[in-house]
Amino acid sequence: MCSSDLLEQALDQPRPAATDWPAASVTALAEHILDTHHVFTKAQLPRIDALLAKVQRAHSLHHGAMLAALRSAFEPLRAELEAHLSKEEQILFPAIIAIDGYLAGRNARPQVHCGSVAHPIRQMEFEHDGAGAVLDRMRELTQGYRLPEDACETLKALYEALAALEADLHEHIHLENNVLFPASVAQEQRLGEPS
Known about the structure:
Layout: H1 3-12, H2 26-103, H3 118-141, H4 153-191
């Protein structure tokens, strides 16, 4: 079965009701982002790298300049995303979950490593803007992921993977910037000063 048949099959399946993330707990949203978007991104980045390398070897004669430019955009994006996810997983999300847990009575009052969750949040939002610019550049280089007439299955898989990464990152960034981060800052403000 080809990938387009699998995609059609997946689209025909009943979809679970969308979660109302603004109404969900901060911890539930953070765990969703980690378990869904972080896992997806970590799987896609090496896959895209391998597909791009294979396509560069096969199509350098006719598409070498575009593929080299795509590589030049993708490599720093991959490095930035890997570091970004690590900072969220090791610093920001544990602080966000600890504050939520304290307000819900699940754990002791947390000590936020950098003074306030607002500081790493600002850095994450800045990095989100940078990733968005690179995604725009990759879309431009590939003419909106439009396949050339001589495209092979690997090039098709690469473009599909890039489009999937872009779509997932847009959802991921939306959930963080517009739901998780504002709710986390508001929760931290509710903590007030330690007694």
